[in-house]
């Protein structure tokens, strides 16, 4: 079993992926572009483990051992011998392209190159490499140490072997995997939440039910932990509008056409919890 992991990007997601992997016994090289970003990333990991130890969910010795398995670097060449690489840099195609071009030059030929992108087609990322069959989507959820799901996405050329290695990796770090067999916009999770939020916002916009009642219907009727409109407020109405817009553009499926209300909310700055006003007032 492959045991050396490289994580590119030490932000929210990259540090979380490094954390759960080191905890599961992987040797992790965490790469970012500045020492400050690396320090921020490792500080986040350390304080998360401190909390686990304080709550009795982890032994202090295990936290120390896991920390010793993480090395940090600003040098991309240091990831050359990784078995699996997970990229978690900014959600911008040109930044991801730069990384995957560089990875293609330096990383072992048989390594698996995974992207944690939330929405960029894996096929587009893989296209700048000479090994698109070794590129796969590995979409973790935030906060990574708490969220159980990893959505694995097959690009147009991803091989069965690559998918199998990615699955083995994600399961080894304690995640439950769902496989997305075609590289569709929004994968499975963002497509589902987008369709639900769009319909919930339409019902609310047309006065069919109040925001509270729509959310209560999903919580108590379907056992959802949180209703779709509260979820939209938490994620950001702007973020969801952008996500549904992308899916609509790619699929031309009108169930992803967001209602005008969502656009006006974003125009007004009512984007949810982070602004104090969304479908609810905070
Ligand atoms: N935040 C979420 O809830 C979430 C959930 C799932 C997936 N994602 C995806 O994960 C990826 C990362 O998101 P995040 O929230 O961790 O972002 P973030 O802004 O917290 O971290 C990004 C990190 O990448 C670093 N970086 C930028 N260019 C780099 C380069 N060339 N080499 C190495 N490091 C570089 C930055 O310095 C920063 O530390 C994005 O693609 C995002 O869409 C995010």
Descriptive report:
The model has no long low-confidence stretch (mean pLDDT 97). An eight-stranded mixed β-sheet has the order 3-2-1-4-5-6-7-8, sandwiched between helices. α1 (12-23) crosses α2 (35-54) and α7 (189-205) packs across α10. It has eleven helices and eight strands. Helices cover 48% and strands 14% of the residues. By secondary structure, the chain is an alpha/beta fold. The structure holds nicotinamide-adenine-dinucleotide. Nicotinamide-adenine-dinucleotide binds next to α1, α4 and β6. Nicotinamide-adenine-dinucleotide (NAD) binds at residues 8-14, 31-33, 37, 88-91, 95, 99, 116-118, 139-142.
List the topology elements.
Layout: E1 4-8, H1 12-23, E2 27-31, H2 35-54, H3 60-68, E3 70-73, E4 84-87, H4 93-106, E5 112-115, H5 122-126, E6 135-140, E7 149-154, H6 160-172, E8 176-180, H7 189-205, H8 211-222, H9 228-235, H10 237-251, H11 260-268
Parallel strand pairs: 1-2, 1-4, 2-3, 4-5, 5-6, 7-8
Antiparallel strand pairs: 6-7
Helix pairs in contact: 1-2, 7-9, 7-10, 9-10
The protein binds nicotinamide-adenine-dinucleotide (NAD).
Strand content: 5-15%
Q: Cofactors and ligands present?
A: nicotinamide-adenine-dinucleotide
Q: How many whole angstroms does the radius of gyration measure?
A: 20 Å
List the helices and strands in order: EHEHHEEHEHEEHEHHHHH
**Can you give the mean pLDDT?**
97
Structural class, by secondary structure, is alpha/beta
In spatial order, strands of the major sheet run 3-2-1-4-5-6-7-8
